[in-house]
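INFO  loader      accepted 1 record
INFO  loader      residues=548
INFO  predictor   begin
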Amino acid sequence: MSQRIRRVYQITRTFLSYGLDEIVPTRWLPWSLRIARYGLFWMPNRHKDKSPGERLRLALESLGPVWIKLGQMLSTRRDLLPPDIANELAKLQDQVKAFPGEQAQQLIEEALGIDNVAEIFDDFSVRPLASASIAQVHTAKLKHGADAGTDVVIKVIRPDIRAVIDADLSLMETLARVLARHLPDGRRLKPEEVVKEYRKTLLDELDLLREAGNAIQLRRNFEQSPLLYIPKVYSDYGRHNVMVMERIDGIPVSDVDTLNALGVDMKLLAERGVEVFFTQVFRDSFFHADMHPGNIFVSRENPHDPSYLGIDFGIVGTLNRDDKRYLVENFLAFFNRDYRKVAELHVDSGWVPAHINVEDFESAIRTVCEPIFNKPLAEISFGHVLVHLFNTARRFEMEVQPQLVLLQKTLLYVEGLGRTLYPQLDLWKTAKPFLERWMQEQLGWRAVVRSVKENAPFWGEKLPEMPNLLYDALRNHRGRMEQQQQLLTEIRNNQRQQLRTMGLAILSGAMLLSTTILYVMHQPVWLVASAAAATVLCGIGMWCRTKA
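INFO  predictor   done
INFO  writer      dumping tokens
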């Protein structure tokens, strides 16, 4: 608890010392926060000479990787932020303050079990090539093997970073529990599940062996594709905190001036970015979930037929078959302006409660989405669209799907890239043909052919066993039928016995009642005795049948 309190104090002091409270309009702050700000008078703004964007960047950078990741995502939302702030936050993508190169070299030597990097690498650069929130990279050349002389980059995790991440994540989990308990929308927004998912993805980034596996998978998925190139990973030198991979020579996707100077087809490049995203999600169900501009480059070769280069594969996302199917159907219904279908799909998938009025939900979706169709990205205010969508979700009790958070974040990155590269891009027209083709492959005759191809080896292996399997199935079926017939006969006999017992029980009760009435009415003794004897005989018969 004391650690959390110290971290809360550190975050508050950082925000106030960089004057971030001055960036937020006063009218947006509740009176309690304004009074608290006056109470913390010993934490003045110490960076008044810097611009708001620079102050925000420095504050996030000083708080560590969790906050830097937040800044990286915000840097792609130029429709939500002023240009000076967006430009400053873009520096967080690959210009985070580096730790000493000598310390990085020592970490590499310890991880690989060598006395000096020169045993494995030539031309090792102590000066880092780039530095990010989780790790930094150094350049070198391989010294041995078939790839000797190949330019590589060595990625090494920042030292002692786990403690900082754990502290921030613990604080976020506490805040999520408070929000889930006290916010009216806490249950619907599922803040605890979202933070849990974020914890998993962030901690996965600390394991470079996992990142190497992700890179190898992505490289295999796009091995023959002109859309995306993934550098080769040298697994022999991989460790949990060190990764070695091929060095690429590309232009940062955010360097629009250089891309234009080289004559790159920006429209085709933007369209291919959309295609890369949908290919990863819907063809492979395995997508790069950290596609901010610092991790995406453009090849210098063939500017009229451009391709992307990708790095940093610490965060990847996956989708199961059901979620993928519902997403495609939602996208297609959305592109076809079939808002009724969109509403029904949300109810069918359980994302919206079944008691919601579908007609009202359909009307609300139409109100939000219709104004943005047939418009290029430059003319769409996604900030306003998001606000309206969140309000609609709240009104119709739509629950947050934690498994889709990474996908939503990646889609924001892709849209931000498209806005930067080619603002006139028609996102809907670019994506619709791809999704229609995917649906045809999943549901049409192609799906049948693919299923036959996939299962043919298994069927071929089992074909010689079919006569025996058929004989065993028929024999087992006959045995089961005999058992069912025997069980049915037993059930019928039990029912008959129960009916006879019930009849005797009713008769015994009637005789007892008759005996009582005869006795009360002072009837002849022989008549009362006869009735009593009949009652006893019926009772004995019922008892005997029960025991049987």
